[in-house]
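User: Some background: our group keeps a shared notebook of sequences we're curious about, and every so often someone picks one and asks for a predicted structure to add to the entry. Today it's my turn. The entry only has the sequence so far, pasted here. Could you supply the structure so I can complete it?
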Amino acid sequence: MKEGQKLQHADQQMMIKADRFVLRPLRVSDAGLISYYAGDKRVARMTTRIPHPLPPGASEAFVARAMKAEEGEYIWAIDGTCDGAPELAGVISLKRMDRAQSEVGFWIAPPFWNTGLASEAVKLLVDANPFKDSAMFATAFQDNPASARVLTHCGFEYLGDAEVFSVARDANVPTWTYSHKL
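Assistant: Of course. Here's the predicted structure to add to the notebook entry:
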């Protein structure tokens, strides 16, 4: 994708395959599992945008927005059905920034924590580089060292400290910022 081009609908979003899962565009049927997993306080508190408690209709609105690829962002389901796992074990996103750069975001459902799934999904997305970026960025809350390990394991390098607002916490949260030159 060239700089300045707008993203189109999710039907133009690529599917990215790995051995034990596939990254695929979200679909309407994902709303139930998103509600179930993202409604977990432990998940919501480690994100910037998921409120807790999750209000009625929030997951459906999230899926609808993802299917339109609004705001220059592609959002994929981490779908493990090819390996006998659920059709949604987490979500990973790539949001366009300027100058051929994007920001990676992800959350993993608690049953899949400490399984290597997050590292595999981030590495798969980085390797696929769907926007042909020259760099990707990501942040991790400082009280979430597991996410920081995922990023460093996938080749991201620490840039510095910052803070960001978390809807679930209703507060600014200290973060570590990372970049990956491609």
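Suggested note for the entry: The first strand starts at residue 16 and ends at 17. The CA atoms of residues 22 and 67 lie 17 Å apart.
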